[in-house]
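Any chance you could type out a protein's amino acid sequence plus the matching C-alpha cells because I've never seen that pairing?

——
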Amino acid sequence: MKYDITQPWLSLDKWQKDYIATQPEQDCFLLATRQGGKTAAMSIKCVEMCVHHFGKEQNILICSITEKQAYRMLAKALVYARMRYPRLVIEKGPDKPTKHIIKFTTGAAIYSYAAGDTGEGLRGDTIKKLMIDEGSRMSDEFFIATTPMLSVAKGSMDIASTPHGTKDKEGNEKFFYKCSKDDHYKKFYVSAKDCPRHSKEFLQREKDRMTKLQYAQEYLAQFLDEVLQFLDPKWIKNCCVGKRPEKIIKGTYYIGCDVARKGIDKFTFEIFNRTGLRGKYFLTQVENIATTNIPIPVSTRRIISLNLQYNFKKEYIDSGGMGITVCDLLREDPKNKNKVVEINNSSRRYQEDYEEKKKGILKEDLYKNLAVLMEKKKIILLDDDEIKASLSSIQYEYNNTGKLIIWGYEDHIAEGITKGAWCTKDKSLNIMAFC
C-alpha cells in the first residue's frame, strides 16, 4: 500500500510492527536513520498500551529535548487514537486532550514534556512507561532524574534516536551508547537502506553532498568515534541563562539570520545587544525567533519590521542559495540597504602565491568566534530549550585532507546565532557607547 504520511499505521514497516507488538514490560532500544519512522511507531505503541494493557494510574511519559519534539509524538498519538479508538479518548471536560496529556477511559494517560538540561522538573512522578525520543542528545543527569520514576510501578523504558557520537567532552561514554551494548534491551536497528520511504535517488544525492561520516551517522545510523560535539556542554549550560527583556531599551542591536525558503527548514532571527569598547565587547541575546513554511518575501518583511523596532547597526544574512534574494530585497528598503552584511557559508579558502587566503566569511570562522565568546563568557544566550538543543547538535570532524567540517542535525538556530555573534568583528563607531 502506498505510504500516507497522515495515516502511517496503514503501511507500517515490518520492524515497526514487531516493535509495536513488544510487551509493555520490555525495555526497547531503537537506533534509527533520519525519517525512519521511529516517532510514528512509538506514538502508535503508546496508544496501544493505554488501550490494551494499562489501567488507572498506569501512565506513559514521552520525553524529548525540547517541548516541540515531545509534543510531536503526542500529537501523532492523538491522531491515531482518534482514528482507531475514538470512543476511548476522553474529549470533553477537564480531562480533554491538551498539548501535554491525552487521557483514556481505561484510566491510563499519555503525558508529554521536555527533558530540559537535567530532567529535574520531571522528578516525583510514577510512570509505567518512559518513552524517550532523541535520547542520544540527552545528558546523564536526565537519566539519573527520570529512571527512578519507573521503580514503584515496575515500569520500563523505550529509548530511540539517531546516533550522536559515543562520548562526551570528558571522554565518558554517553548513556544512549551504553544502552546499545546492554543486552537487557530488545534492539531495533533501522538504516535508510531499509526504509522504503527513502528513494535510492534521494539517498545518493545526500551521500554526494555529505561527508562519509555525516552520511554514516545520519542515514546508516552508525555510532562514530570520529564525530565530536563542537561546543562544550558546560559552555552551553553557563551561557544559556538569559531572559527576554520586557521591553526594547536603547542599545546597539545586531541581527543574524539563517535563511530557509517555504518548507520544513527554519528561518531564524537571532537578535543581540552589543556593549563595550575597542573590541572588548559583550553580547546579550535579546530575542530568538524561528519560523517554518514561510515565503521568502514574508520573512524579509519580518526583518524590515524588526529593524523598525531595534534599529540594527548590521544585519548578517545567510546569502547562500535563496538567501541572496533576502539580501536583494532588504537593499531595496531605504532603512535597511546599508545594514546588510552577506555571509555565505559556501565561501572557501584558496591558495595564491603559495599563501592560504580566504574569500568571504567562512563557516569555521563563525563557529570558532562563537566558541571563543562562550568559553570566555563574553556572551549570554537565552535560556531556551530550542537554542540549547540546536547548539548541542553541532558536531565536527576532519575529512581526508584534514579540513574541519562543522555540521548539525538541528543547526538552524545555531547558524543564526553564529552570524549574529559575528558583530564582535564590526569595527564601525559605536555612538551609543559614548552616551
Summary: Residues 42 and 435 are 57 Å apart (CA to CA). The longest strand covers residues 280-292. The chain is about 30% helix and 25% strand.
